[in-house]
Amino acid sequence: MHGVAFFWLLSWLLPKLTIHWRLCLATALESAWEVLENAPLIINRYREGTLALGYEGDTVVNSMGDIVLCGIGFLLVPHLGIRRSVVFFVVVELILMLWIRDGLMLNVIMLIYPIEGIKAWQIGG
Fold first, then answer.
1. What is the DSSP letter of 47?
2. What is the DSSP letter of 52?
3. What is the greatest pairwise CA distance in the chain?
4. What share of the chain is helix, strand, coil (3-state, %, to 5)?
5. Which among 21, 51, 89, 111 is most buried, taking Cβ atoms within 10 Å?
6. What is the DSSP letter of 101?
7. Please, how many CA atoms are within 13 Å of residue 118, restricted to the half-sphere of its CB?
8. Buried residues in 12-26 as b, exposed as e (16+ CB within 10 A)
9. Helix 40-49 and helix 104-112: axis angle, to 10°?
10. Distance in angstroms (rounded) separating the CA atoms of residues 120 and 104
11. What CA–CA distance (Å, rounded) separates 89 from 120?
């Protein structure tokens, strides 16, 4: 989902930049996010505000997989178009919320402003 979001953001902010350079920027942004996500500050925030009580950070394989999938998501948007990529984004987020009670949007919400009702729902209560 990061790749889809980065495509939209970079297309809006840098419309004259070629798609290849925007992909490079998206990859750099995702790589920076992976470093930040595994920093003690964010790991502790996850532990405080979410269900990740024993979370110690992602493995290198997980982080590399996230970077590759970001690129795939980015490259998918031009083929889907804006409307279908929005539908894709919403459908994937809804499936993740219903299936595993998690997803990009919930993750961001709980990282920035944890909500006890969401936390209770994620626990299954």
1. H
2. -
3. 48
4. 80, 0, 20
5. 89
6. S
7. 18
8. eeeeeeeeeebbebb
9. 90
10. 18
11. 25
Amino acid at 59: T
Q: What are the boundaries of each domain within the chain?
A: 2-123
DSSP class of residue 15 equals T
Other beta carbons within 10 angstroms of residue 49's beta carbon come to 18
- Whether 52 shows a pLDDT value over 70: the answer reads no
8-15, Cβ contacts within 8 angstroms, sequence gap of 24 or more: 8/77, 8/82, 8/85
Please say whether the beta carbons of 48 and 68 come within 8 A: no
Would you put residue 102 in left (φ > 0), alpha (ψ -120 to 50) or beta?
Answer: beta
**CB–CB of 65/73 below 8 Å?**
no
Q: End-to-end alpha-carbon separation of the chain, Å?
A: 27
Rounded to the nearest angstrom, the gap between the alpha carbon of residue 62 and the centroid of all alpha carbons in its chain is 13
Q: Which residues lie closer than 8 Å to 79 by C-beta, 6 or more apart?
A: none
| Confidence at 88, pLDDT banded by 50, 70, 90 | very high
Q: What percentage of residues in the chain have a pLDDT greater than 90?
A: 61
